[in-house]
Amino acid sequence: MFRSRHFVIALLLCALGVLPARAADPVRGQELFLQHCMSCHAPGRPMPGAPDFTRGQTLFQPDGVLLEKIRDGAEAMPGYRGVLDNTMILDLIAYLRTLQ
Ligand code: HEC
Prior knowledge:
The chain starts with a helix and ends with a helix. Helix 4 (63-72) packs across helix 5. By secondary structure, the chain is an all-alpha fold. The chain has one domain (24-99): Cytochrome c-like domain (Cytochrome Bc1 Complex, Chain D, domain 2, Orthogonal Bundle). The chain contains five helices and no strands. Bound molecules: heme C. Heme C (HEC) binds next to helix 3 and helix 4.
């Protein structure tokens, strides 16, 4: 009885958006990376001009800033607006942070 009451409260908080429904998933992010990003950002040997996520300062930026850059693109970096939604991009960023 005690447990189920807690469950109902947690469910209500989720419904109200107080608790996040889901944390970023780096495993899903890796799948997306292999599909969309690997060709230019191969860890340890990226194409010339593209950042290598295993080193350097590219990831010394908040998730929100990286999200905008991935969504909008820059120079030779294609934008992924309409291809990847914000949840997918946050999964990707969670994966990039495992490479560092
Ligand atoms: C066609 C090659 C290409 C693909 C595909 C690509 N990128 Fe890039 N990316 C680049 C290049 C080149 C840059 C450097 C752009 C610049 O000069 O500002 C870059 C920059 C970045 C940056 C750094 C932005 C900054 O300035 O801080 C991030 C983060 C990034 N890419 C993430 C991704 C992710 C995630 C994907 C897959 C969804 C992806 N890229 C796919 C070429 C690519």
